[in-house]
Design goal:
Chains A, B: InterPro entries: Dehydroquinate_synthase (IPR050071), DHQ_synth_AroB (IPR016037), DHQ_synth_fam (IPR030963), DHQS/DOIS_N (IPR030960), DHQS_C (IPR056179). Chains A, B: Zn(2+) binds at residues 192, 254, 273. Chains A, B: Residues 189-338 form the 3-dehydroquinate synthase C-terminal domain. Chains A, B: It is an enzyme of class 4 (lyase). Chains A, B: Pathway: Metabolic intermediate biosynthesis; chorismate biosynthesis; chorismate from D-erythrose 4-phosphate and phosphoenolpyruvate: step 2/7. The structure is a homodimer of 375-residue chains. Chain A is α/β, with parallel strands linked by helices. Chain A is globular. Chain A is built from 13 helices and 11 strands. Chain A folds into 2 domains: 3-181, Rossmann fold, CATH 3.40.50.1970; 189-373, Dehydroquinate synthase-like - alpha domain (Dehydroquinate synthase-like, alpha domain, Up-down Bundle), CATH 1.20.1090. Helix content of chain A is 48%, strand content 16%. The first copy, chain A, has helices at 28-39, 51-67, 86-98, 113-125, 139-145, 183-200, 202-217, 220-239, 254-263, 273-290, 296-308, 325-334, 362-373; strands at 9-13, 20-25, 45-50, 72-77, 106-111, 131-136, 153-155, 158-162, 170-174, 343-348, 354-360. In chain A, the strands form 3 sheets. In chain A, strands 1-2-9-6-5-3-4 form a 7-stranded mixed beta sheet, sandwiched between helices. A two-stranded antiparallel ribbon of chain A has the order 7-8. Chain A has a two-stranded antiparallel ribbon with strand order 10-11. The termini of chain A are far apart.
Chain lengths: 375, 375
């Protein structure tokens, strides 16, 4: 089968004047120039990428851009979360300005979540907002950061605490780029795929329980799972672009997850984002059962599926150990989704029945953490 | 006359969900707590200011906030344009995060344009957008940066090339704070006041020709001139919030002005922003006459008024001399209002009849500069 001959699946993100398309399919890096030039005629561009991704995909992308008449500089940052810093932000901003790009020109992010978040932030602040195109090359980036316009960097006070909302003009999710992902990274991205089922699509979660092996193997089910994920996120974002209400649902598993990332020092050898989210989702379902909101059977079912794909689900699974419950709670309280001192969690009434709870007493979280830290 | 007993003048900036009030009058620093608490109940805040302004106005502001139940930290930066840097941005962002302020809390800018642009940028990126309140203490900040939501910092590539559009929730323009401004700074701010007349309010310009002495002296005419300026800018911004068209009118005098600021190394001993704008406006009118768009009499009238208030109007007035015409043109071409290589200028058909010209040949600008560099 010649994948690249298949037409990509299109998901439209409806945000009024800021609406845009996500194309999902094989061979999109090689078609990027044509797709971008058709939508943004006459632009120049800067491609922001990291050294690892550049080695595989930068030349094909630049050739495709050149063939479509798009002059594009390349700005290559160091791979890894450390590039989401003020120092790298300033470097990339300077690189874009040195190219004398204008507001109508584009910053193109070629890479995973780090590159997307960083390049998106750059495009949102250079000349108070340039055009932005995303070419996500990790599963996590394709199903998460490609939808919603969240951009940002980290600080010593926490992750993603500095950034802007800045929507891309186009997202090209080339599924070929996933073939070379390490298994661990693909699995971590899959946690976010499962999340969309758990938020409000119980049928999608059931479909994943049945089809996850094909999604991992790279068949048409993979394109389908990515498209469903993008559609699910797009629906939530369209209802609440700037995270004033509903959008908080997307944080299912993230409040616990961010705390675990913080407690492990954002050390990717120990825990990457998706792994934290997987444990966080399992905990959110367990916590909801503990609060008599949902059946323990649902928590069991979530755990079973995450385990089946090879993801961790318990605090004791985090390698290297964790601090005590009090310290974990501190990480949670610093999390930016805290509103006026009350603890906000995404809880659930069952598979696909998540909701935002704004008034969870810290004491209940603390005792739940204590129970789960001692297996 | 007890100024502080007079009710402030209110100007509403109409931007749909982002609409806000500008209050203009005496004694507003002392009333800030009550005005803010009424509109944003229950918030905490960080006041960003510079060392000079802090010495005069920080304590009265904090007392007023405390009296209204608003807990407020103070973040004091060095005075001057150098604080519009990535380094200071990072410092202030860290300061705000250290206070654990949330999205619903406020950054309050107390100071002139530098503090407003910097603090506004901080409030636009911390947690992807906090609430923002401005207490502008210079004439320039009261009539210019308090309207329109432009925020930003400078880079080695130019001024204000990095920032976001982020509208304040409230602006408190306390005219008492202008009494201690150096005469030169007040005069420079006045250039922007005159600009609003020259853009599209010929009656306001005629009123200023008649009443400028009372505006400088601090009578009710001062409040009136500030209110008219805010109204004029608010009208333009309401038509074009993100500077896609009409808003470019506000750059009258600024393309030449920014080039002069660049050519003098942003050395405020030689030239401050408003002085550059004054020369720029005179040149824009002279250039328009040279292109047979407007009568030379109008250019004479603009020059005469700017000279009357003590502002410079010619390139030869810039102390320390200027580089050649080619180099000045380079500064213009780097200006961010350049669109796709064509030179964009605000030109005029007469007093209060400005328009945006997107297709001014560089050769005409060059020869005009050459003529004006050799007096």
């Amino acid at each position: 089968m010649n994948d690249s001959a298949m037409a990509p699946v299109k998901v439209e993100v409806s945000l009024g004047a800021r609406s845009y398309d996500i194309l999902i399919g094989a061979g999109l890096v090689r078609r990027a120039g044509a797709e971008i030039a058709r939508r943004l005629p006459g632009i120049r561009a800067a491609v922001v990428t990291d050294a690892n991704v550049a080695a595989r995909h930068l030349e094909p992308l630049r050739e495709s851009l050149a063939a479509a008449g798009i002059e594009a500089a390349a700005i290559v940052v160091a791979p890894g979360e450390k590039s989401k810093s003020f120092a790298t932000l300033e470097d990339v901003v300077s690189g874009v300005l040195a190219e004398r790009l204008e507001r109508g020109d584009a910053v193109i992010a070629l890479g995973g979540g780090v590159v997307g978040d960083l390049a998106g932030f750059v495009s949102g602040i250079v000349r108070r907002g340039m055009r932005f195109v995303q070419v996500p090359t990790s599963l996590l980036a394709q199903v998460d950061s490609s939808v919603g316009g969240k951009t940002g960097i980290n600080t010593s006070h926490g992750k993603n605490l500095v950034g802007v909302f800045h929507q891309p003009r186009l997202v090209l999710a080339d599924t070929d780029t996933l073939d070379t992902l390490p298994a661990r990274e693909f699995r971590a991205g899959y946690a976010e795929v499962a999340k969309y089922g758990l938020i409000d699509r119980p049928d999608f979660f059931a479909w994943l329980e049945k089809n996850w092996q094909a999604v991992f193997a790279g068949g048409p089910e993979r394109v389908e799972a990515i498209a469903q994920s993008c559609r699910a996120k797009a629906d939530v974002v369209a209802r609440d672009e700037h995270e004033k209400g509903d959008r908080a649902l997307l944080n299912l598993g993230h409040t616990f997850g961010h705390a675990l990332e913080g407690a492990t020092g954002y050390d990717s050898a120990r825990l990457v984002h998706g792994e934290g989210v997987a444990i966080g989702m399992a905990l959110a379902h367990r916590f909801s059962a503990r609060l008599n909101l949902a059946s323990p059977d649902d928590a069991d079912r979530v755990e079973a599926h995450l385990k089946a794909v090879g993801l961790s689900t318990r605090l004791s699974d985090v390698p290297g150990g964790l601090p005590g419950a009090e310290e974990l709670l501190n990480y949670i309280a610093q999390d930016k989704k805290v509103s006026r001192g009350a603890l906000t969690f995404v809880l659930t009434r069952g598979i696909g029945q998540s909701f935002v709870a704004n008034d969870v007493p810290a004491s209940q979280v603390l005792s739940f953490l204590e129970e789960n830290l001692t297996p």
